[in-house]
Amino acid sequence: MPELPEVEAVRRRLERATRGRKKGGDMVSCDLVVRDGDVILPSRGLTTCDIAITDGRIAAVLAPGVACSAKEEVSASGLVVFPGAVDAHLHLGHGRDIAQPRVALDADQETAAAARGGITSFMPYVMATEPFDKIFPAILDVSHAGARIDFAYHFVISTEEQLADVPKYVSDLGVSTFKIFLNIRGGEGKRLGLPDIDDGFLFRLCEAAAASGGQVCPHPETIEMSWPLRDRLMAKDPEGKGGLAIWNGSRPPFVEADAVQHAAYVAGVAGARMYIVHVSSQEALEAGLRQRRSGSRIALETCPHYLTHDVTWKGGDIAKINPPLREAADVEALWKGVLDGHIDTVATDHVHRDAGSKEGGIWKASPGCPGLETLLPVVLSEGHHKRGLPLSRVADLVARYRGSGHIVRFIEYMDVGTLNGWRPDYVVASAELIARIAARWPLESLERNYGGEVAQRYAFADGAGEIGFISSVSQPFCGDCSRARLSADGKLYTCLFAQTGFDLREALRSGASDAELRALIAARWAQRVDRYSEQRAQMRAQGADGKVEMFAIGG
Q1: Any idea what the CATH number is for the domain that residue 103 is in?
Q2: Which long-range contacts (CB under 8 A, 24 or more apart) does 252-255 make?
């Protein structure tokens, strides 16, 4: 999809700000300067630079060390500085109403939650049956009065009057993205206070959006096909004891996939751009990709809950949502879509439901879940840490540091501690990375720097530096390990995977000399029998747990 003009303008400003700036240049004045962070910049990726901030806004992105008169200075050396996340899909309301904010506190509370999760801009959907030009000024006033972050709005189009005014919404109100609920048919819209629509309405909205430079955002469910499924399941399970699984069964993936391919095809015929919201299943993703390959201009979105939860979640009816949570295989298919770049955005679809709205069983519980705080943490923990860097991007990372003097180390994802949800299938073996990198830049094996070094060292054959691989899973490395670790509470651990540590506090408190401590530690080390990397499979099969957590002992 082409970049928006304002995005391209920001890109040019950032490139000008970081190009050719020298130490001792023109003095910049600001309230705060963040020094030496590895900043993610548009088109340039990680770039070490300084960020000047004035009145709570970024005033300049500077080359490291540019002279700057600041009231406060913070070092970000060794840290990655992310742009604030944009949540492109949520519902902001009042009380149990999710249609629109009514008072400043509505915007205040929800934007506080967003900021806590790393979101600095969000775009709620406004639902109403009135013409939006009549109510939008009041919504903006309430939002400005309470919001802690930047915001914009989408409109949900559901009436003939709203449809006729689409060109005016774009030209006069600056709103160019329009949602349509394909599931509000046969009275389904009563819960939201919206009238039913049909395929003719969808087609005319696509035409209006195409003519006005707008974009259509459908909620994709061919709801008529779900009704007989729902009725059969309710007859068998009237109290909804089947929970999330039965809710998924009543609105299965093919109901979503059919609507995705149908809506995208209609948009293509009308010449409209389309943004498919909350893709929840492998079938829906594949349907969208087929339409994209056929020429439809569509973007695909998924949400944190579809990337983390499935129908087996123990929380039960609290996670009722439309479309439903799916199977574990769908979770992994969506992650593959994210990592491959087929899914364009991750957004929360936040709805401020309280626990009381989920009572009465799965059939009566209200759909939707809060999630503003989850967006960036989920992408980092589940995407980056658990599933690793996509192989397609490994070469780009290596290219950045070749010839820089920095040595990149790739470490296989380890089952340290008990909290990181490690699974063997998350691991990318060093051998695979070595082969991929060597195919582009020939490598030569190097000797170890010292006994017990765990990294396999390689030099680029063209002299452009060194790279290393720590095969912490695919190759045992306990045999000549020489690393002991001391925890913050004074215990000596002889292995990164140890279950218990040797308490040194008594010796320290009794006044033991350095020589006595050295002898005590040496004796303990001589007695070590740790071989976890060699015995991993056997110990995991036996249910060995209780390993010390990484945060207690460091790397």
Answers
A1: 3.20.20.140
A2: 252/226, 253/280, 253/281, 253/282, 253/283, 253/284, 253/326, 253/330, 254/225, 254/283, 255/221, 255/222, 255/223, 255/225, 255/226, 255/229, 255/323
Last residue of a domain, one of 22, 47, 81: 81
Q: What is the pTM of this model?
A: 0.67
pLDDT tens-digit readout, 7-31: 344 445 444 444 434 444 467 789 9
Query: Using DSSP, how many helices (H) and how many strands (E) does the chain show?
Result: 20, 21
Number of domains in the chain: 4
> Tell me: the pLDDT tens digits for 486-513?
887 888 888 777 778 889 998 889 998 9
Out of 37, 53, 81, pick the residue that ends a domain.
81
In terms of Cβ atoms closer than 10 Å to its own Cβ (0-12, 13-18, 19+), residue 521 is middle
Q: Residues, the chain, total?
A: 555
User: Does residue 393 share a domain with residue 382?
Assistant: no
Q: Say if residue 369 is in the same domain as residue 456.
A: no
DSSP secondary structure string, 193-227?
Answer: T-----HHHHHHHHHHHHHHT-EEEEE---HHHHH
One domain for residues 411 and 465: yes
Same domain, 89 and 53: no
- Phi first, then psi: what are they for 440, rounded to 5°? -100, -40
